[in-house]
Design goal:
The protein contains ten helices and 20 strands. It is an alpha+beta fold. A hairpin with a 3-residue loop joins strand 2 (39-43) and strand 3 (47-51). It is elongated.
Length: 353
Amino acid sequence: MRRLDSIRDKLRAQEADVFLVTSPINRRYLTGFTGSAGTVWISADKQAILTDFRYVEQVKEQCPDWELIEIEDVNTSLKTLIDDQNVKKIVYEKDFVTVGLLEEWEKNLNAKFVPIGGWVQEMRIIKKSEEIEFIRQAAQIGDRAFAKLLPTINSGITESELAIELEYIVRKMGAEGMSFDPIVASGPRSALPHARPGERVLSVGDFVVFDFGCIVNGYCSDMTRTIVIGEPEERHMLIYDLVLKAQKESLAAIAPGKTGAEIDAVAREIISDAGYGEYFGHGLGHGVGLEIHENPRLSRRDDTVLEPGMVVTVEPGIYLPDFGGVRIEDMVVVTDEGCDVLTSTFKELYVVE
């Protein structure tokens, strides 16, 4: 219940009576409820989930420490709670409430509504051991799935066929689903950092970028590997080796007390000094957890100080228009000494004969 204690401390500091949670991800984090509809009410002496008939039994099973309030109309139930508990001030998640919903609350509910941001997201930055274990399991499925996919890759197969096969393997291995639509990008399309798989046929001379992750108990993994079709040329090796060097040295630099910007600078300097700085246009990495993109960020604009328990990606890349791109990504958890790499797939350039 430490999470609730933290929320209540924040309520006292705001001199507010209630915190309303409407974000599905934050709702799950605080309560354990995985359903698709529900509002969380947290006050000094009450913690409740407001949901409808469809999820009554699910809340009872998943959230034994929470009061269940079955609703037909959420605003009617909120009005009853506000009136019964003499609530004057409510804080709500500004990033997850529409203008229309806020106007409805202010019109029909007798309380002052104050927007806040990041209360739960800040708590989610430091992962507990159970969360890290779920992420580790997801990463392991990703490793095994990619190993099974590699022998099926050949010139003549399409990006879409590989993406479909990868998702099938991941699901068959026990994942709940993919963390995001997988990226399979070949040839010149591999220079598009977020390319969607298409009907392009893999051909000799192509770099092929695979970026994907899967979900275990709600927690995501994320990994990128780049392979080449046919014997690599000098240009292939130059770019690949440069990205690999930047990635390895960034991993070695991760430690508590460093900032996201400092780690980003390690990779950026290596790539820039080699003359490819303009072709590395995204941040080095991002946090991963219940969402595929969370805080902190490893980027030039993030001065978050790394702490043990943070899970981040490290994914430098070089993207050359009309030729192709390379990205290599591992997911790591920050430890007391440095970091523990959760991804175990080899990083030597894999060549499809």
